Amino acid sequence: MNKYTLRAVLAMILCALLAWSAPAHALNLFGFGGDGIEESAIEDDGMLRVYLKSLSDPENLTLTLAGVYTVEHDAGFRFDRDTEIVLSDGGDAIYLCVGGLTLDMGSSLTLTRQAGGNDENGMYIAESERNNLYAGDLTVTRNEGGGLRPVLTIRMEDYLCGVVAYEMSDSWPLEALKAQAVAARTYAMQRKWSAGDRDYDLVDTTADQVYKGLNADYTNVLQAVEDTEGVVGTYNGGFATCYYTASNGGTVALPSDVWSGSGDYGYLARRDDPYDLANPNSMVSSLHVSRACEGSPKLKAMLLDAADAALADMGYEDVRIEEILSITPAEEKIEGSRMYTKLRFSLKLSRSEMVYMAAEGDLGMPMDATDSPAANQALFSIDYLRRLRLLAPFELVPVRMDIADPVEVELDVYGQIKDELDLGLNGSDYELVSVLEEGDGYTIQLRRFGHGVGMSQRGAQRMAGVEDMDWIEILRFYYPGMTLEQIDWAYPELEELSALPDSVGRARPDPTPTPTPAPLPELEAGEYYAVVQLGDASSTLNLRQAPTTQSQVVAQLKNGRRLIVCGAADDGGWVQARTAEYEGYCKLEYLKAE
Fold it and tell me: pTM, whole model, 2 decimals?
């Protein structure tokens, strides 16, 4: 009988006993396969405000709508599906460009989703890393120092579909993805409920959680989010901060192990993690040296410097390492953390010493010539007298002599082993150090990719994929003091466009006519006049800062606009072009020479 069958039998027996002895409402404690997910009393609308910080407050935002949007529920200011909108920082306001019109939107605007008859309802952002759907409302504010500040308001479960896929991978075991979904959901709720007066709850980078929009092809991720919908972790009446890390190196860390400050983290425990350690995909940085300390000239030099310092009072010359007897981690940063700050080396050393030896060609001391000790002593005495008569009976030569006792030296793990030997995995000093003694030498290993607090993603991958553990077992291993609850989100309904009050665009001022272009300057050597020629008369041509579609848009030129081409096209078909106001790059195929 496998563990799932056994669990199901036990759950049925327990439910039967409760049905016999407990009120019917108590049975709701055994949702999700009888694993004790409680129905939560927490009320929340399930909406998150995500500051799209990864876009780096751009000068322009190019949006392609995959649904019907309005400007702040104004039915007279609507945009249909497939509309392309460009928002630009105009220096004093945000300008919205659409269909050949330029609109002054003031210092901020919100594009609001309306109900639509299509499963896909959101927008695509050209400046984002991937061509993924951002399924929410977008508020864009102009920064005082310049640039656009986009904040996406999105449903929790839609948000998670764009998080789990990039914090793990759609190819990972489903149970690991479910554990990640709960951890990410809990983290997001904790950030939301502690956001205070901010106009956002969390950012879309590793400063909080990576969010890159929805890719509907990631079906395992979508299932993991759906199967755990609304499940969060709580502790002492609030949301747990479900920290997670790529790999903990074999030991789950406490927040106090790696960060300053204090907090109530009773739901976490410092413990060994055999699952992370056993995962061959867990990152490790290693260095192998032989017992004679061959394999790393830098390490050998550091050890010799430390040995010279330890033997400074002895006056030894030309100290050498004959053998590394042992390497031992020492001095934990925090007791029990296994974050050792020193490596202790026990070394067998030798030194150089000048001694008198028989000169070259000298037969040296006579060998025993007889069986009589007395006769042999007489022969030695005669030879000694002979050498005295020669005046230079011996030659002073250097020889290597072992230093009798092993010498212990220490190297700093984070300053020397990590940095000077280039073995680090993180910018901060979180790594764990260990040493494997092998037949021909030693392997120094640094593990832990990330801070090591909370759930190890590599550990979860191993638990689900090899150890056949489910998502609840994974969460209980990494957050042993956390209670699992399920929230029923009170999402606000999307409004049908027909339900909005009649309006003729009161949300914003009237469109600002596009200014008349200034006359073109005289041509310089190698230049010629051309006009923008596009297939759609309402389209515009992007003039970019560099010859690539990823470069910032300098200006948008209407169909028929005259400009100056500054020379021949490059291999990619890009040409440098200019008007009286702008200079940049565009594709030659969209221009017609006059």
Answer: 0.74
